[in-house]
Amino acid sequence: MSLTKAEIQHVAALARLQVAEEEIGVLSEELEKILAYVDQLQQLDVTGIEAMSHVGVTQNVTRPDVPGISLLPEIALANGPDVEEQQFRVPAVLEG
Amino acid sequence: MDFFSGLRKLHESLVAREVSPSELVDFSLEQIQAFDEQVQAFVTVTQAQAKERAVHLQDQLLTSWLAGIPFALKDNLCTKDVETTCSSKILRGYHPPYSATVVQKLEDASGILMGKLNMDEFAMGSSTENSAWFPTRNPWRLDCVPGGSSGGAAAAVAAGMVPYALGSDTGGSIRQPAAFCGVVGLKPTYGLVSRFGLVAYASSLDQIGPLTHSVEDAAIVLEAIAGKDRYDATSVAREVPHYIESLTGDIQGLRIGIAKEYFSPNIDSGVRMAVEAAIGQLERLGARIEEVSLPHTPYALAAYYLIAPAEASSNLARYDGVRYGYRAEHAENLLDMYRKTRSEGFGSEVKRRILIGTYALSSGYYDAYYKRAQQVRTLIRQDFDEAFAKVDVIVSPTTPTTAFRLGEKTEDPLTMYMNDICTIPVNLAGLPAISVPCGLADGLPVGFQLIGRMFDEQTLLRTAHAYEQAAGFAPLKPALGVQA
Questions:
Q1: pLDDT confidence band for A17 (50 / 70 / 90)
Q2: Ordered domains of chain A (ranges, CATH)
Q3: Domain at B207, CATH number
Q4: In the predicted model, what is the mean pLDDT of residues B218-244?
Q5: Cβ–Cβ contact A70 with B under 8 A
Q6: Does B189 map to a domain?
Q7: Average pLDDT for residues B219-240, to the nearest whole number?
Q8: What is the tally of structural domains in chain B?
Q9: Looking at the domain assignment, is residue B265 inside a domain?
Q10: So what's the pLDDT on residue B99?
């Protein structure tokens, strides 16, 4: 298992992370070691084995649709790094 | 006064008015003042609020077991208006607008919050060295780690700064630090305790549980925090048993399983000897020791290090600098802001796991990695199902070694991951497990683990309690505490 520089940059882009050029060497070494370790799962025959996504009871959980107490807008926005007129402000979404 | 003699004694002293909530709060603050400069368990001490609350409770009837008694919380449990950081730069300054359900329950029981405890960033780590703030130290030996990720919780309890704390356990994060620090750590069955307000790491594995000085204390705290919560759809509607009543001391005829897979050559001889002595003790108490087989155990770590990062990569997508926490400056556009914020805000282990998780879920690799890991998870679960057809409880070491030195395992992520080899299978299967101190090896605490059937915390606690009573050396006290 080996990870190319381009693959690392691709995965980083998917994860919304920046990887600096000088980090790539160490990172690819670490990731390769981890991937080599998890590769032992390929030794097992899992034909016909169901994938387990969670533990426990699979059942619908429903409740009556009754309005409850919710956070006031100013409280919900209180932790925002940049807030204006009850909205979160972000940098430009579109170029130009 | 000390916090080592248990919640029952503190409760009785409060009811008899031999001690007041304010005195307990002052004592806790004194202990923090005396030892936390060295141990560094706390990231926030809520001194003013704690004192105020103690005064408020002064004249009230303290009927509940936990009323008037100080506690502290791992910093990934949301506390209304008290900073909650997960020991990450990306959440610095975050003041949750609500409290986690477990926190609300302890408040409703008239407990007194003393502060928030250090951890590996977003609970990713086994030594509390991955904290963005500072590493926590083991009260037994200050150049050793307390374990992790609930290292602050284990160290604070072990040093006697608070009588109990809550932590979270995704792959061993309560049990491993409990073992390293000589305290009791309980990971309840998946679904027993609400996770509402627990900052999510890997949602199919995370559970909240207590770190305490005794099994009885663990039973008391568990009873207070367990139960269905309408805010957590994964919490299960079952009547919460009176756990304390199950502590009969009688395990005559109980069938206890030993799986050879948990006694691999990776287990240090000192740990092995202490755990084998504990098994001998259980046998003398009338338990029947039987061999069981859990053949897929060697694959658990690999499955975990795909499943947990995959879930983490999804859960941690919410930290984007928009609604709370850190935001990077000088961004050219929105995408650039996301990427700068996350790259500057997350530490290296968190980034590593997000990358692994994203890779495992990405197109072309999903079947080979994530799906296969989930299939192996089914095999691990089936191993336990078969074993629990024959025995009531399974016993193992909690960790392969005692506490290691700071910096010893930070170079190689895989070596660090190996710490959780005995605890991870339990989370994958959703079972309850407890780590109980069983002596010292070279001056450092050793813990053994008992694993139970789903929702059978009663048998687990009964077994652990019977051992603890018979062993007769609990609770362990580090030299640090003795100097008090």
A1: very high
A2: 5-42 (1.10.20)
A3: 3.90.1300.10
A4: 95
A5: no
A6: yes
A7: 95
A8: 1
A9: no
A10: 98
What ipTM describes this predicted complex?
A: 0.94
Check if A71 contacts B (Cβ < 8 Å): yes
Q: Are B147 and B126 in contact (CB under 8 A)?
A: yes
Answer whether residue A93 shows pLDDT above 90.
Answer: no
Instruction: Give pLDDT tens digits for B378-412.
Output: 999 999 999 999 999 999 999 999 999 999 998 88
Mean pLDDT (chain B) is: 95
In a domain, B202, yes or no: yes
Tell whether the model's pLDDT for residue B280 goes beyond 60: yes
Judge: A17–B379 Cβ closer than 8 Å, yes or no.
no
Question: Which residues of chain A make contact with B95, given a CB cutoff of 8 A?
Answer: 78-79
Establish if B339 touches chain A: CB-CB under 8 angstroms.
yes
- Answer yes or no: B80 catalytic: no
For residue B34, pLDDT over 90 is answered with yes
Distance CA B332, CA A91 (A): 7
Residue of chain B with shortest Cα separation from A86:
B323
Residue of B124, B206, B355 to mutate, interface with A, max A Cβ within 10 Å: B355
**Overall size of chain A counted in residues:** 96
Count of other CB atoms within 10 angstroms of residue B37: 8
Residue B364 in tokens = 């072309």
Structure tokens at B286: 């009338």
Report pLDDT for A94: 76
Structural domain for B142, as ranges = 7-260+389-471
Closest CA to B403 of B150, B178, B218: B178
Q: How far A54 CA lies from chain B's nearest CA (Å)? A: 5
Interface of B with A in 149-188 (CB under 8 A): none
- Which residues of B are less than 8 Å from A39 in CB distance? 302
Helix axes A21-38, A5-14, angle to 10 degrees: 90
**Binary contact (A80, B376; C-beta < 8 A):** no
B204 lies in a domain?
A: yes
- Inform me whether the C-beta atom of residue A24 falls under 8 Å from chain B C-beta atoms: no
Q: Please tell me whether the overall predicted TM-score, pTM, comes out greater than 0.90 for this model.
A: yes
Q: Which of B339, B352, B368 sits opposite A16 (nearest CB)?
A: B339
pLDDT higher than 80, residue B122: yes
